[in-house]
Amino acid sequence: MKKIILTGDRPTGPLHIGHYVGSLKRRVELQNSGEFDEIYIMIADAQALTDNMKNPEKIRENIVEVALDYLACGLSPDKSVLFIQSQIPELCEMTFYYLNLVTVARLELNPTVKSEIQMRQFEKNIPAGFLTYPVSQAADITAFDATLVPVGEDQSPMIEQTREIAKRFNHIYGDTLVEPKILLPDRNACMRLPGLDGKAKMSKSLGNCIYLSDSSDDIKKKVMSMYTDPTHLRVEDEGHIEGNTVFTYLDAFCEDRYFEEFLPEYANLDELKAHYQRGGLGDVKIKKFLNNILQDILNPIRERRIELAKDIPSVYEILKKGSITAREKASQTLSRMRKAMGINYFY
Ligand code: TRP
Q1: Looking at the domain 4-193+312-341, which fold is it?
Q2: Predicted TM-score (pTM) of this structure
Q3: Which residue's alpha carbon is at the smallest distance from atom 15 of ligand 1?
Q4: Which of 121, 153, 253, 284 meets the CB 3.0–4.6 Å disulfide criterion with 191?
Q5: Using one digit for the tens of pLDDT, what is the confidence trace for 118-128?
Q6: Which range is least confidently modeled, 37-41, 124-128, 300-304?
Q7: Which of 62, 137, 162, 192 to mutate to test the pocket of ligand 1 (most atoms within 8 A of CB)?
Q8: CATH hierarchy code of domain 216-306
């Protein structure tokens, strides 16, 4: 069986460092490992519309932002198919059939969708398309015969539902669809990077993100304003690591080599943590260290992004070519499905 990756993002805003550490970085590594036969990276505009139907302009504008983020991070159109979800109408047809394989009760159990419904205060007015987007996500994944879906932890209920749908389809109509596996970030801290304010999630609407496109000054300002340990008032005070956002980010981004470069008094993160906990280490010092690390990671990404942004038509060309390739693949899978279901009446 071929090894195939599919993953993607909603274009509701430019991507931030939570996306980077939770998924983008890994995607680029997987792409460059050469271990995969096909790699599909999708800009999920149709899914983004499920709660932005009145605001299509926002989604339209952010498609190119997300594409720039992808390319700047090292996803390459020579190795990965970069495409736009709405340009693959086959996905809608698959979704239409899959909707019959899930119950409304099951959809209402999806914990990610549940919390999104709460956050968006839909109450009794949940758009049907929003409640059912995990079904359309199952189409996104199975249309490409994806064996592996690298995503953040919040997406694991979607992969679970996809597996259920694929299993059910195969059970009823015979072996047709691939049941995908999830690939989660390998570091715990990368699973769900908190916002700068320590709130559960980095999110555009909470205004607590560092974006891949942020300037060097913005990054510094944001890091210096980060939430740490409210009981750590003087440098001599004992400090806490748990719930201290600077340390959570260090857990996510730090490599030993950064100590050599930026903070040679310590050999590794454990030593730094121990010092903070026993007292005598100030917040400014750990923030400066984190800032240095983030600048090191983000500077080259930002520079590439600025270069790429000089030629937006080329970016659209990449997405257009990718969408044509993606559509061919999805339409092959759809033919297989129609045949399995016996609705290929004229062939
Ligand atoms: N739900 C994902 C997000 O919110 C985007 C997405 C849509 C996706 N379809 C997908 C991710 C298929 C992985 C696989 O970011």
Answers
A1: Rossmann fold (3.40.50)
A2: 0.94
A3: 9
A4: 153
A5: 988 988 899 99
A6: 124-128
A7: 137
A8: 1.10.240.10
